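During the reporting period, we have paired protein sequences with backbone structure tokens. One record among many follows, to show the layout:
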Amino acid sequence: MPTTLITGANRGIGLALAREFQSKGHTVIATARDPASAKELKATGAELRALDVSDPASIAALAAGLKDRPIDYLINNAGLGDSGGFGKLDYDHFEELLRVNTIAPIRVLEALTPNLAAGKAKIAAALSSVLGSIENANQDFSLAYRVSKAGLNMGLRSAASTLSAKGITLLALHPGWVKTDMGGANAPVEPADSAAGLFQVITGAGPSKELRFLDFEGKTLPW
């Protein structure tokens, strides 16, 4: 039975991913800042762990608690959104986005590299966004969010060669425009549909020495 660890799993896409992987027979380790209040997540049957991805000590505590437990699939899902454009930026929030969306997934990945190396699948996926595509960037809305996801892509792509030597494959994934608190009510993709697509992409990825940037339907996205 594969073991999958999902960060930020108490709501939205993370909760849908926990349900999807659990329904497909995976042992799911799901993290939330406050597991005691994550009632919907607890109902999935997943194993709950506390994690605040913005706190290095919390990441270290998660890794220490897992010890040498093998992880087959790591999904860095926890993240923040922002819609502000140039000239309307909240720079304190900008810095928070960089901590949560860019630095935290790389820190979690580094902390759990031994666990991934001990697993069978050795797949580490991070939820990025098509808005992180530099090639497609022609508007300034969600500027801070775009920068944070482009930075995440660069960090993962830089780390891919080092991690491939340990047999670990990296994926940067766009979940679609999903109907969540972040995506809004007008988003066309339901969380369950995004999660089902992501499950197929993640579990069907196979090994690679290079980072792949894909959407939830498996389409390759431009850098």
Notes: Residues 3-215 form a domain with the Rossmann fold fold (CATH 3.40.50.720).
